[in-house]
Amino acid sequence: MRTPFICGNWKMFKKREEARDFALKFRELYQNKSIKTAIFAPFTDLETLVEMFKGTGIMVGAQNVHYEKEGAFTGEVSIGMLEDLAVDYCIIGHSERREYFGETDETVNLKLKALLNSKILPLVCVGESLETRESGKEKEFVKNQVELAFKEISKEDAVKVTIAYEPIWAIGTGKTATKEEANDMCTLIRSTLAELYDKETSDKMIIQYGGSVKPENASDIMNMPEIDGALVGGASLEPLKFIEIVNF
Ligand code: PGA
């Protein structure tokens, strides 16, 4: 049995005070401990959230990290720095990082390897653009992203990775993939993992859907057999909305 995993991705929202207010409310509301949850916050909020969620089971993640241990990389944050804050997770390869900040399949793979050598668990995002979907090449595209992300990763390490399928055309647009479209792509991702490793390994891995998940569509999505969780942007900013999704 795979435990459902529902994550909030705050992107570039919330100052520390706002993060603290959210955490105060959300930790009161979070009762359903059979569902795992994490908030992926800006770097400046991580320390506050780790402190506020201590002992609650709610996990905290960063939205990006550098793969080198340290060095002359102005503006970057290392895995060691995140470990120092006792952060649990880190997103890599979010489509906004790929589109605006030069993240590539190669850097995703380097970051994945580096995180798997640390105490921080990776969440890898994949997903096609509208153009790719309209050209009918979306399956080939996502399969290739998964293969490149997992290049030279052992199966013992692979099971620690969460994958989020986020079609770019559904992110922040209010346009959700249908539950069948989302489930189909999660099925393809799982079969790609079974080819790379084996069925037993791929059956254990958590695959989320992301892109305009909200309280109104969360249960439809979460009840699909191959979808194990959700990565939620906009609707994770308000505790009352996000808890409804967590309690789908
Ligand atoms: P959204 O964002 O829920 O606002 O569409 C999802 C994401 O980018 O992770």
List the helices and strands and how they pair.
Layout lengths: L4 E5 L6 H14 L6 E5 L2 H10 L6 E4 L16 H6 L4 E4 L2 H6 L4 H12 L4 E6 L3 H5 L3 H12 L5 H4 L3 E4 L13 H18 L2 H6 L2 E4 L4 H8 L6 E4 L6 H8 L2
Helix pairs in contact: 1-2, 1-12, 7-9, 11-12
2-phosphoglycolic acid (PGA) binds next to strand 8.
Commentary on this structure:
With 248 residues, the protein is α/β, with parallel strands linked by helices. Helices cover 44% and strands 15% of the residues. The chain contains twelve helices and eight strands. The protein has helices spanning 16-29, 43-52, 79-84, 95-100, 105-116, 130-134, 138-149, 155-158, 179-196, 199-204, 215-222, 239-246; strands spanning 5-9, 36-40, 59-62, 89-92, 121-126, 162-165, 207-210, 229-232. The chain has an eight-stranded parallel β-barrel with strand order 1-2-3-4-5-6-7-8, surrounded by six helices. The longest helix has 18 residues, at 179-196. The mean pLDDT is 97.
